[in-house]
Amino acid sequence: MVERTGLTDEQRLDWLRLIRSENVGARTFRDLVNHFGGARAALEALPGLARRGGAASARICSREEAAAEMQGARARGVHYVALGEPDYPRRLQMIDDAPPLLAIAGNRDVLTRPLIAIVGSRNASAAGIKFADRLARELGAAGYGIVSGLARGIDAAAHRASLPTGTVAVLAGGHTRIYPAEHVDLAEAILPNGLAVSEMPLSWEPRARDFPRRNRLISGLSVGVVIVEAARRSGSLITARMAGEQGREVFAVPGSPLDPRAEGTNGLIKQGATMVTEAADVIAVIEPILGRGLDPPPMEEPEPMNPPERDPGDDERGRIIGLLGPSPCSIDDLVRLSRTSPAIVRTVLLELELAGHIERHGGGLVSLV
Amino acid sequence: MVERTGLTDEQRLDWLRLIRSENVGARTFRDLVNHFGGARAALEALPGLARRGGAASARICSREEAAAEMQGARARGVHYVALGEPDYPRRLQMIDDAPPLLAIAGNRDVLTRPLIAIVGSRNASAAGIKFADRLARELGAAGYGIVSGLARGIDAAAHRASLPTGTVAVLAGGHTRIYPAEHVDLAEAILPNGLAVSEMPLSWEPRARDFPRRNRLISGLSVGVVIVEAARRSGSLITARMAGEQGREVFAVPGSPLDPRAEGTNGLIKQGATMVTEAADVIAVIEPILGRGLDPPPMEEPEPMNPPERDPGDDERGRIIGLLGPSPCSIDDLVRLSRTSPAIVRTVLLELELAGHIERHGGGLVSLV
């Protein structure tokens, strides 16, 4: 990453174009900007990269499209905060797939407070909803902002209970496509003291796969995540797993072994999550962490500018592709086994990624799609 | 302790007389037998000890009373097993206040199997009862005997579910005073495959304080104790505490934070009890323990026979009494601070105990009553 203090309007537009272009995710964005020294240069390189990766064409977000989104957003009070800018949520910067641009609406003051996520079942029990309400109220009163996903059930209860103290709704779609639609009023009510945030285009209709993707932001914004009710294999458990991977504290509320809505939470406790029966259980774990402050600089140092001296040769590209498969493998291994340079491997991976042929995982792993 | 292989009928009668005498508990029994070399000699010394301890008189169980209890027991199929005899439950022998004589009725085969206690609220929820039933059934099928306290609610559910595989009811009163009376049939139904055990006189009507006392036998018999539902400050938590003190595994079943019957169990889990949502959670912890076998010889080596050369002098007795107070203090400290011998201190403590003036705690601590 290069930009550090704040983007110019022109740069912000380039960032938006780049992240809105086909097959460019948060990690690819970072690689592209590091590789080419900036979003503008990356945009110029995109068509060639995608073509060499095997794509017939790669849809690049035009200047006009990006400008229209910006304008639409501004008209609705939605602002784009870029990774590295002072307003960007500090803890979120630390995850390795932090969104380059975050579209936010509402009162940013809530970001100055430590955030705790409260999530759980959509079809929650009355007891689960009551407990989420109580917990959010007590944590709010103790100075914490409450993060959740604006879903029915536990999420909505957590948001409602923390409207006066400040709550953050993380959207799976765009700001003008609140999901579920019945929560449009709730999303509005959040704004005076809290925030709605999204990494998706303004009018993006969320698809099933956007929810797990969104869940990484819920945990990424937060110091800890409390799961109130969760069935086995539910979305809330994905948030818990992501929280663990991001080094966030994981809390779970117990329930009867005969209640299917407690299977997930009881399982988390067995795996080491902190059991929560009252707000004090959360605060006892979180407070010492806040005392330690945040870890090292949130953004990696800009890599030395070393655009590859030449494009990869077909034989090199062939060797690298031959090494890839559906199981994730490390980029280091690819460099070693392909007997090429790191720069060549990175370039080929970018090509393949932009052509939609590979997927990036955490920890520098990639696999064929 | 001296007897090791089995008592003669005459010795068994002496043991029964001694443990049924006033102010003689399990620990005092052990001290008296060690001190005087046997129950008969202890019985002879009792009146003098109690008088010197300040008692106007000490009720000593007569030969006739003891013989009558024995005869009444035999007529009802109740047998007395003495600490150190082969039939005495092995794990129970290891607790420091194991009853010298255990009155047992039923099928002793269940004692050859590892035992797990399942206890909980008397006013249990339907879910709690269902879970206790399921757990007892599954653990029974896995080869474990189920121990409980014959109370209403969780206890009764655990017993009923393990009638076919073998269950042990630990009574707070005597064998002919089943409490609650509505469980007389249940107590009968236990005997073909299981046991009822009691340390109390045959027709003892249990008082409130007999229940916590009884709870130490529930945990003492068992490799581990599962608490299914327990309110804050309930009797089941006493069993859990005793289990911990005795080095037994403590398990607890979680519940909603809004359910008062889960307050105790959730609290136990926070304190380190193993969370149980299925039988496998118990078995996973217990199996490795069984593999290790039992720890060192269950009974302490008989102490060298060193009856005090002389009775304590009044000044020595006065110094020792002066050092005692309502807070427990160690016998070692008494020896040191009174500048007398261990034998003198032990004798004075026996005197005071038999006169009902002191209480013994675990870990060699005593206090004034």
User: Helical content of chain A, roughly?
Assistant: 40-55%
Helical stretch count of chain A? Answer: 15
Mean pLDDT of chain A: 91
**What kind of sheet is the major sheet of chain A?**
9 strands, mixed
In spatial order, strands of the major sheet of chain A run 1-2-6-5-4-3-7-8-9
Total number of beta strands of chain A: 12
**Quick one: overall form of chain A?**
globular
Largest interface: A-B, 22 and 21 residues
Unreliable spans of chain A? 296-305
How much strand content do the residues of chain A show? 5-15%
> What is the CA–CA distance across the termini of chain A?
27 Å
Q: From the alpha-carbon coordinates, what is the Rg of chain A to the nearest angstrom? A: 21 Å
Structural class call of chain A reads alpha/beta
Oligomer: homodimer
Q: What is the helix/strand order of chain A?
A: HHHHEHEEHEHEHEHEHEHEHHEHHEE
